[in-house]
Amino acid sequence: MLRISTDITNKAIAEKLCKLIQRETHIEIQSSKVRRRQIGLDGIAFAVFDSQSRRLKSIRMAEIRLSRLEQGQTKIKNVPIAVTPEGFWCCPSPVVFQKTLKNQNPLNKPKPASPPPKIPVEKKPTLVTDRKPPALTRSRSAAVSDDDRKGNADTSGFSAPEVVHRVSRPKVENMPRKIAIEFGEPGTSNIKVVLLGKQGFSVKLSVHKNVLMDNSTFFANKLSDQEGSSMEIGDCEDVEIYVETVGLMYCKEMKQWLMKQNVSRVLRILKVAEFLGFMSCMQSCLEYLEAVPWVGDEEEEKVVTSILRLQREGIGVSPVLKRVSADVSKPHKDTLSHIIELVLKSNEERGRREMKLVVLRLLRENQSVPSHANSADICNETIYSSCRSCLGSLLLLFQKATETEFIDRSVDRKEPVLKQITLEADNLSWLLEILADRQAADEFAVMWSKHQELAALHAKLPIVSRYHVSCITARLFVGIGKGELLPAKDTRKLLLHTWLEPLINDYSWLKHGCGSFDRKVVEEGIGRTILTLPLEDQQSILLTWLGSFLKVGDSCPNLQRAFEVWWRRTFVRPYVETQGSNPITPQLEP
After folding, report:
1. Which residues pair with 45 in a beta bridge?
2. Residue 161 needs a FRET pair 20 to 30 A away by CA distance; which of 137, 145, 201, 449 works?
3. pLDDT, position 53
4. Residue 562 near residue 549, CB atoms below 8 Å
5. Tens digit of pLDDT for each residue in 284-311?
6. Which residues in the chain land under pLDDT 70?
């Protein structure tokens, strides 16, 4: 039976309470009759307002009476703690807990047109039952002792001590608990559990000792040595969930009820169930969490964190955690290698493009995880293995495409090889992007600079078939110019001598045929790479560039800024080494 012990001082407030119960529990109330509507179990009691007698009456759903209980026995089938498809205790939805606490002052405040607070006894609504159990007339505060409750019994249904208690009640601001909600029926229970929450909110549960002890190690330990008929649990952070968890002790179909809850609420129930030592509830919650989808990273993190906090032995958390952690039967290196291989060998343009972006983004996220630092070397090794494979394939394709027999073929017969060249060049560009993002592309620059044979064959292929290879060279220069990779001086010099001329030859096609090509960024990268070399090498490379630029103009990279820096270093402010051990000092020419 649900009783809300706030000020029910007139008919209007009682009717509001009745409507609240009707709305939240789907109970249709007509006079003193209650009819069930989509609620499963019998034996559920309510305090409802009787419009004829103007009293609150305790009416059982379907007007079914409980049979007399033998001493020490409990008929769980007909307990007043309602276990229904809609929820437990047949009480208002969880929102009512918040509304009751929020609206405690309006309930206690009389309306302007109402009589003064001291209401005559004959006008006070009184709780009456069909069976007239002595404990149904209840004081408004959960702080009243059980002895007071027993003394309030009256066969007529009126509660005279209630008036005395009302007159002598303390001020609202001095009351330790301002709101009290009671569940269950005192007439059929043998123990009361009072949950003390925050902000003066308390809940009283009329329950059965053997049910609590059979399902909860917490209650078993507390009640085994206790002779009284009541106990308190203080500092309850989540009173609402405590009520539901205790209600679950009467539930035989726990899985079906949990299916109607969300992940967040089940995690709250799991936390309370662990505190109470309610093992069957914990197991049902874990089975729910193992099967239900987790939506978003935040919810997944909440689930994993909550599961890892479980300290009790015998609780199977591994099925839940297997969703986020696998047995290391297969090394991560093999898995990553397989993923990269699938992307590299794909011929479907859209799938390749999207998955390249996804893998690049995910690898970038892994770098921000401290625990991933140890596997960084393994990842880089896997990527370099793919790089060497692609470079070998590209060299074989270049050799085949420059054979005399191949040149004499028709365009249709050439197309598969030329398409494969484009594919391998695109693969290398993607792998280089991954390495540069991981600041591990120095070795790639070494490999690329040493491929003089590939650079020599490059000039023999038609520009339409080879210009994608120059994108790799351009990306290396951009990376060096931005400091994303720091190869040795000899590597930088060899890279420029081997691949700058092929890049210049393909430059016009790169500008117009490559959508991701950024001319200014590439030109700045080439210039900065040149300026990292000794002054003599700068001069040699820039003078060669100047000859090409004066011939083809806009079809050649514009390295004017690098040329100006070299000029100033050479003619305007040359640095010379003084005699002895003095540092290098600038000497301006007149």
Report:
1. 60
2. 201
3. 42
4. no
5. 999 999 999 999 889 999 999 898 888 6
6. 1-180, 199, 311-314, 327-332, 368-375, 574-590
The residues that bridge with 182 in the sheet, in sequence order, are 3, 204
466-480 pLDDT tens trace: 989 999 999 999 999
- Coil, helix or strand for 226? coil
pLDDT for 458? 92
Measured between alpha carbons, how far is 126 from 56 in angstroms, rounded to an integer? 6
Dist CA 346 CA 355 (whole Å)? 10
Alpha-carbon span 143 to 177, nearest angstrom: 7
Of 258, 178, 237, nearest to 4 by C-alpha is 178
Place of tokens 């307990």: 79
Contacts for 328 with CB less than 8 Å, ≥ 6 apart: none
| Rounded Cα distance, 98 and 92, in Å | 11
* Residues 6+ away with beta carbon under 8 Å from 306: 267, 270, 271
- Return the structure tokens found at 528: 């900065």
- The whole-number pLDDT of residue 315 equals 74
Block residue for tokens 């040795």: 488
* Pairing relationship of beta strands 55-60 and 127-129 according to DSSP bridges: parallel
Residue 439 host element (H or E) = none
Q: Say how many CA atoms lie within 13 Å of 16 toward its Cβ.
A: 12
Say which amino acid occupies 173.
E
**Tokens 């047949």 map to which residue?**
90
Q: Residue 50: beta bridge partners? A: 55
How far apart CA 119 and CA 108 sit, in angstroms, is 13
**Distance between CA atoms of 344 and 355, rounded to whole angstroms?**
10
Q: What is the pLDDT of residue 228?
A: 75
CA-wise closest residue to 462 among 425, 509, 430, 423: 509
